[in-house]
Write a sequence for this structure.
């Protein structure tokens, strides 16, 4: 059985390519998925790639990843929920898989409310500000974890 890595995307990421291209670039979520599937395959993994605008669905998917045998981890771009969701913090803390928090933009160069993450204290790692290639960096990080 092939191990499956989860790549989970939160609110508004379905609008990549059209929403604030000066901040997020012109790459679409479909392009991100293609990148993630290729990076996961290079590590010998299948890739479960998902996006939702609903916080509870992200929580459910984190729980699912935690129940998935041999799951090497989760790459999570929670979007704005990063800055508001105690529920996501608790879900990450509750599952027995490493979660890498990803942000396309450098949130620390943006509005002050984006400087705080409820997820960072329970994340295995954080990739911030490298654009869409940050997803590949997060996947490589999971692949090289000791």
């Amino acid at each position: 059985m092939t191990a499956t890595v989860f790549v989970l995307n939160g609110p508004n990421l379905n609008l990549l390519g059209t929403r604030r291209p000066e901040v997020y670039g012109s790459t679409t979520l479909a392009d991100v998925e293609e990148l993630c599937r290729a990076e996961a395959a290079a590590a010998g993994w299948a890739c479960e790639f998902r996006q939702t605008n609903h916080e509870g669905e992200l929580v459910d998917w984190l729980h699912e990843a935690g129940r998935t045998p041999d799951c090497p981890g989760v790459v999570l771009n929670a979007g704005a929920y990063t800055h508001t969701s105690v529920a996501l913090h608790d879900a990450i803390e509750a599952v027995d898989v490493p979660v890498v928090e990803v942000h396309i933009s450098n949130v620390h160069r943006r509005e002050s409310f984006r400087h705080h993450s409820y997820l960072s204290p329970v994340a295995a790692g954080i990739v911030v500000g490298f654009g869409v290639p940050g997803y590949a960096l997060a996947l490589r990080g999971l692949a090289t974890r000791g």
About this structure: The chain has one domain: 4-144.
